[in-house]
Design brief:
This protein is 44% helix and 5% strand. The protein is mainly alpha-helical and 369 residues long. The strands form 2 sheets. It has a 3-stranded antiparallel beta sheet with strand order 1-2-3, with no helix packed on it. A two-stranded antiparallel ribbon has the order 4-5. The longest helix is centred in the N-terminal third of the chain and has 50 residues, at 3-52.
Length: 369
């Protein structure tokens, strides 16, 4: 295989590696979320068992909140299952893109090239250059600023350019993607941070950073997929197809676009609005004529049979006072209750008649007293 084909295969493998790292990050977040949901589900189930136990009836105020929390946890599990299925489908869809690289690596010509070479992985290459003797000497570069782990806060979180790949190797060896080792020293140049694969690469890049950046930008134009992979958007301006600007027009400051909105009050200053104000002279004349005609008019009214005695009346009165009196003597009277009986209603040989059974007044008073 040609050298150009091997470089294209290496770029393809680096792209696949970047996508795999993104998927792994999402999978780790999904695993942490599932672990948290599992612990919460176990705790809610234990709480539900302690609440219900062997009771035949449990108040809804105690059980329903637990059921609601369980349903929310179950919905969280379903969301994670959907996310896992999406990640699995993405991983399956990425597999065909590595077929060409695998075919090239398995070809006899490529295997013959590897017989006399020592293959090292990225981790092994990083371990070989991690010693203190491989570090950059800042005394050799008075005009360049190098950062080191022991002298820089949050060194591991520095936003490295070229997505952590060595810019010197990318520019010198025509798009060769080698992972950089930040432990050697990170170059701080015009607000950007650059890491390198070796001390020689750091020394060469620090001697002329702008020149190497220009070569890297020109190299990425031959492989546009590197713009996304190495995050080189800041070195390219948004240009339309067919623009007459030449090559020099591509290297500009990026055009930043964003959605913005403003909100203002309807009346941010108090004002006296007269609703009856009219600016039209003819409208004012019309109102004046209307008022003049009203002065010569009279109001008439009549009453018919339908409206007779149908008017609203109101009356205002004083409420009666509550009056009471108290005496030194308490007395009362009681009369006997009248009582009559009709005799001869049971079939006896007696002429039916009405018998007065009312007690005399004297007897009644004696009984009640």
């Amino acid at each position: 295989p040609s050298l150009s084909l091997l470089k294209q295969c290496l770029i393809n493998c680096r792209q696949h590696e970047a996508f795999i790292k993104v998927l792994m990050h999402d999978l780790l977040a999904c695993a942490e979320q599932l672990d948290r949901l599992g612990h919460e589900l176990g705790a809610r189930m234990e709480e539900l068992k302690d609440t219900v136990q062997a009771k035949t009836a449990v108040p809804t105020a105690q059980v329903y909140p637990l059921f609601i929390s369980l349903s929310q946890l179950w919905a969280g599990f379903q969301d994670e299952v959907v996310l896992l299925s999406m990640l699995s489908s993405l991983l399956s869809s990425l597999a065909p893109f590595t077929k060409n690289a695998s075919d090239v690596s398995e070809s006899p010509e490529f295997q013959a090239l590897l017989e006399s070479a020592t293959v090292t992985t990225d981790e092994q290459r990083r371990e070989q250059t991690s010693g203190p003797e491989h570090r950059v000497d800042p005394d050799k570069h008075r005009k360049a600023e190098f950062l080191f782990p022991e002298t820089t806060k949050n060194f591991d979180k520095l936003p490295l350019e070229f997505r952590g790949y060595c810019g010197y190797s990318f520019a010198i060896h025509d798009r060769l993607l080698l992972p950089a080792n930040p432990q050697l020293g990170v170059l701080h140049h015009r607000g950007h941070y650059y890491a390198f694969a070796s001390r020689e690469a750091a020394d060469g890049f620090a001697s002329n950073p702008e020149g190497f950046l220009a070569v890297a930008v020109e190299s990425s134009k031959r492989s546009p997929e590197l713009i996304q992979l190495l995050d080189l958007h800041t070195h390219f301006a948004a240009s339309t197809p067919g623009s007459k600007g030449g090559r020099e027009q591509l290297i500009k400051a990026p055009v930043t676009k964003c959605d913005m909105g403003t909100q203002t009050d309807t009346h941010f200053m108090e004002s006296n609005i007269v609703k009856s104000y009219e600016w039209n002279e003819w409208e004012l004349r019309r109102k004046a004529i209307k008022l003049a005609n009203l002065r010569q008019r009279m109001t008439h009214s009549m009453q018919t049979d339908l409206s007779h005695y149908k008017r609203d009346n109101t009356t205002q009165v004083y409420l009666p006072k509550e009056v009471g009196s108290q005496t030194t003597r308490e007395d009362g009277s009681s009369v006997p209750r009248p009582s009559t009986y009709i005799a001869g209603l049971r079939g006896q040989d007696v002429v039916p008649g009405k018998v007065d059974l009312t007690l005399p007044i004297e007897t009644h008073n004696n009984i009640t007293s």
